[in-house]
Specification:
By secondary structure, the protein is of the alpha+beta class. It contains 27 helices and 24 strands.
Length: 750
């Protein structure tokens, strides 16, 4: 990095971290995870250390919190409320102790520390004069905070009067919300939202985590809202004092407890850094059972005289540090394993967890993938997690993959109960009781119940009305659940949606008399349903939710067969060949596994040819099957799913009933004369003159195939502002790249 690059990067980091600070401390709506914030702050510090003259006046390394928000009065802290330095590894803790001892001229092991949980809440400073509470302020920017005195008086953990207190006493600590209270609060908001939604009013936003809930509740301009929220307070520090509270940190904290404040009973004195790390591990192991959020452990020099000698840097005390937990990892108890059934019939195991915060989000569920994963095996039979299986009652380590899907990473066998039983995966559907089969070579079990399975039926219906499918205004997932069990207006299959109005008339217009419905809303729904009777071929096919047939496959099939009748005929004709192919696939898998076991090379082609030869398949079936799986973008998996759907009597009957209600439009044939006809194009970055969906549709209408990633098959990359790795890869592969204007010029007039 050169001087100009350092200057630009420091400016970028200053703006980014400054906004993140305002979002977190000022608006209670964090936009960066703690891990990402810490990473960027470390990067800023590293660049400043290398280029000290480029340090900015608004450097993130000098920031503490954010400016107080408008709407509140301001209170200037007599003693600044500083932030803490961070430790992320054990070596950072050892280095902290080394710095302390070196600064004080003491040998290693001569300084003792307190170690306490780092509460993930909102910092608050409460001032008492002559035993009376006179003010309460948030941290703000460290120098000036928001006056939340009236709100703080509603918190039962905060005494209004302290008869034995010093003449001046500023108590500092953290306002937080317990997990149980957080769940109750969000449940109440969701219940209130039902009434608001029914009345056509704007619904309230549920809180992402207890920290946001606590901060948002304390910083209410209407104190009555704060009073209704179950806030709590841990005391752990002080500001201005008219007399000392003790000679050590531990004595002072105990004195605060004597004044009536709640202090954390996990606070402990540690005589060595090794003892600090041991206590850190102990607290980390209890994290999921505490009932409130913590994001690390804070170490403080215990001797207050030594604290005084050590003093402060510009924004942090030298005598304290926060040892942060890995942001995306947490240990918690797996309370149960449930099986969910999806629209394709896939049985998906889900871990029900004791709630724990991971990466700023409260996690109570995690995916367990499939029965092999639970047993400690991967999809190929290899060992994962050192072969440790997962059982109900286990203590498991949870992480968030890509900040989205919680997953189980590890199991603590030392905490496993002797009574814990190995999990036996169900061979029947937990919803309808139909056999759940697992085909050879497949990692997933599937319910064979089809549309008789309520779980599959409702999930298929939700998919059917989704935005990229029929997208019927006023008929979403909630309404599907309502109608599914309706005694008079049941929607059990897609065709039922289009007979809803007729059935409603036969039942004397009962819908308008239901709770949450009226003449207008019922009329609007019926009109929206009628509007969708005419629909494109590809969209109608995608909406059925057939396994493996997504948007792209549906478009490829529609463009090849051009009519619904041709597609149905092809699926019927190819069925015998599809079954032969499946048998060949199973034979191939058996041959591969046997060869692997015997340490020889698999005779795959021989096994497939042998399996196909045993099947009496006509020439027409073989020909149509070859045509089907030969379509660009369509393979055997899609072909098998399509022929399965049209061969299943119940599913085929439901499809036919739906088709009778629809006007399925033939797709417009792609233009053959366009400059992009037959080419594969990829869009990346931001498009400023059209939406991504519009650009994709336009390209496809001109005969191009739109792909999501760059590969050898890519002919053209359209790169807008912010293009990243795709543009780099395209350049490395010599793929033609144009910007949005270049793309529009290429297709101009078409």
């Amino acid at each position: 990095m050169n001087l100009d690059q350092a200057r630009e990067e420091l400016a970028r980091l200053s703006a980014l971290l400054g906004q993140a600070n305002r979002d977190y401390h000022g608006a209670d709506t964090p936009t960066l995870s703690d891990a990402e914030f810490d990473r960027l702050k470390r990067r800023n510090a590293e660049i400043e250390a290398r280029f000290p003259k480029q340090k900015r006046d608004d450097s993130p390394s000098e920031m503490v919190g954010s400016a107080p928000a408008d709407g509140f009065g301001k209170i200037t802290h007599r003693v600044a409320m500083l932030s803490l330095g961070n430790a992320f590894e054990d070596d950072d803790v050892l280095a902290f102790d080394d710095r302390i001892c070196k600064y004080l001229g003491q040998p290693r092991g001569a300084v003792s520390y307190t170690a306490e949980p780092k509460i993930d809440g909102l910092s608050l400073s409460i001032r008492y004069e002559k035993g009376e509470m006179v003010s309460a302020a948030t941290r703000g920017d460290g120098e000036t905070g928001e006056d939340v005195t009236a709100n703080a008086r509603t918190i039962s953990d905060i005494p209004q009067r302290i008869p034995m207190a010093p003449a001046v006493l500023e108590v500092r600590g953290e306002v937080y919300m317990s997990h149980a209270d957080f769940e109750v609060l969000n449940a109440r908001i969701l219940e209130e939202n039902k009434a608001l939604e029914a009345a056509g009013k704007k619904v309230k936003t549920v809180f992402a985590n207890p920290r946001n809930a606590a901060a948002g509740s304390l910083r209410q301009l209407d104190v009555r809202v704060t009073k209704e929220r179950p806030l709590q307070f841990f005391a752990y520090a002080w500001g201005e004092l008219s007399e000392p509270l003790g000679s050590t940190q531990m004595e002072a904290i105990s004195r605060l407890g004597g004044f009536g404040f709640t202090i954390n009973d996990l606070t402990q004195i540690c005589d060595t850094p090794e003892a600090m790390i041991t206590h850190y591990r102990r607290i980390e192991a209890q994290r999921a059972t505490l009932g409130y959020d913590i994001d690390g452990v804070v170490y403080k020099v215990n001797d207050l005289a030594l604290q005084g000698r050590l003093g402060f840097r510009s924004t942090t005390p030298r005598w304290a540090i926060a040892h942060k937990f890995p942001a995306e990892l947490a240990w918690t108890k797996l309370e149960a394993i449930d099986i969910q059934v999806g629209r394709t019939g896939a049985l998906s195991p889900v871990a029900r967890l004791a709630p724990v915060t991971v990466g700023g989000v409260v996690v109570s569920n995690a995916t367990l993938h499939n029965e092999d994963y639970i047993a400690g095996r991967d999809s190929k039979g290899g060992v994962i997690r050192e072969g440790k299986d997962i059982r109900e009652g286990d203590w498991v380590q949870v992480y968030r993959a890509g900040d989205v899907i919680p997953k189980v990473a590890d199991v603590d066998l030392s905490k496993r109960s002797d009574a814990a039983q190995r999990y036996v995966f169900s061979e029947t559907c937990p919803i309808c009781g139909s056999p759940a089969v697992r085909e050879e070579g497949d990692a997933v079990r599937y319910c064979t119940g089809g549309m008789i399975c309520a779980a599959q039926a409702t999930e298929k219906l939700k998919h059917f009305v989704a935005r990229k499918a029929f997208d019927i205004e006023g008929l979403g997932a909630k309404q599907i659940e309502m109608f599914y069990d309706d005694p008079d207006l049941a929607i059990r299959e897609p065709a039922d949606i289009f007979t809803l109005q007729t059935r409603d008339r036969q039942n004397l217009n009962k819908l308008k008399n239901r709770k949450g419905w009226g003449d207008q809303s019922a009329s609007n729904l019926f009109a929206a349903i009628d509007e969708k009777r005419k629909i494109g071929f590809a969209r109608a096919l995608f909406s059925l939710g057939i396994r493996h047939i997504g948007e792209s496959a549906a478009k490829d099939l529609a463009l090849h067969f051009m009519s619904w009748e041709a597609l149905a005929t092809a699926a019927e004709t190819a069925r015998p060949a599809a079954l032969a192919w499946r048998a060949a696939d199973l034979a191939e898998e058996r041959e591969r596994l046997l060869a692997q076991k015997e340490g020889r090379r698999a005779r795959v082609k021989e096994s497939r040819d042998a399996a196909m030869a045993k099947c009496d398949v006509g020439i027409a079936a073989k020909s149509v099957w070859a045509e089907l799986i030969g379509i660009d973008g369509i393979g055997a998996a899609v072909g098998l799913s399509l022929t399965d759907a049209f061969a299943n009597p119940e599913e085929r009957a439901a499809i036919d009933r739906l088709v009778q209600e629809l006007d399925i439009e033939r797709p417009a044939p792609p233009r053959q004369e366009s400059p992009v006809a037959g080419k594969t194009v990829v869009f990346t970055g931001s498009l400023e003159k059209m939406t991504r969906a519009e650009a994709k549709a336009r390209a496809e209408s001109l005969g191009a195939k739109v792909a999501g990633s760059v590969s050898k098959k890519t002919d053209l990359l359209i790169a807008g502002p912010g293009a990243g790795s795709k543009a780099t890869k395209a350049a490395e592969m010599g793929i033609e790249t144009v910007d949005e204007d270049g793309w529009l010029a290429l297709i101009d007039g078409l």
